[in-house]
Structure formats: C-alpha cells, structure tokens
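Q: Hi! First time doing this. I have a protein sequence and I read that you can turn it into a structure. Is that right? Here it is:
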Amino acid sequence: MRITPLGALLLAASFAACRPAQTIVVPPAVEIVNPGTNIYGEWTLGMDADSTGFLGARAVDLTLRPGTFTIVAMYATGEPLTIAGDASRWADSLRLTLYPRSISGGTNGSLSHPSPFTLNEAVTLMASAVGKTLVFTRPDRTEPTSVWHRRN
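A: Yes, that's right. Below is the predicted 3D structure, encoded as structure tokens:
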C-alpha cells in the first residue's frame, strides 16, 4: 500500500487528535546580555588622550555599571582627575547619558587639568561594544569620539 503526502498528513493529524492535550510551560523572560556586546565593565582609553578631552593624560580608565560611571584620568604629575556620576542607557537604543555628580582632583601645583565634563550637565553619547572594544560617538556625528579597550 502506498501513502500519498496528503494521506500521510491526514494520518498524522488523526494521531495528534487522539493524544491528550499537553501543557506547554514557558519560562519567565530573562534578559540575556551577550558579554561580547556589553557596554558595562572596566575600560581603558585606547587612543591618544590628547585627541580627547583628557589632554595630557597618560592613562584614562572608565568604569561603567548600570546606573553609574567613574572616569579616572592619570597625569604624569599631580593627582588624578576623577569624574563620577549617573549613567542611563536608553531602552532599545545605543544612547547612553552620563550625568556627572562629582568632579575632583586633576590638580598639578598651581595648574589644573580641566575636566571635559561639567558638573551636573548631562552628556549623551552613542555607545557600542563589540568584543573587547567600546566606541563612543556623538549622536550627531558618525566618527568615533573615543575608543576604549576592556580591562577585565
């Protein structure tokens, strides 16, 4: 006896109709963050600091966590410049807003290393990470304003 494709489909449907209904359990939604594209973590500036707002810094480190950020710029002389505050990522977007709540240090005797941030003035950037690289751009530009490399 030979069964046509339509016959096989009808036979399978009749067997399925005879089986008791099964309950399908769907697990609760869980946010899965791909570590290869996660902007959060510890970063170090991967480009010449003189091409950024941290003119003269020998190293600049960024710690970015959900809700907070800290930037520490180390200079050859004087105390480090530390900028800390709130960070918020826009839902379903690359936009990241940094809101500096404190700016300290950065002094070198009578000179000071100016902060590229203004206290209590929000800065919105586009943030994108791939692998161990984080790139910031301004929303109105296409070229990167800074490139960072993952420390951890």
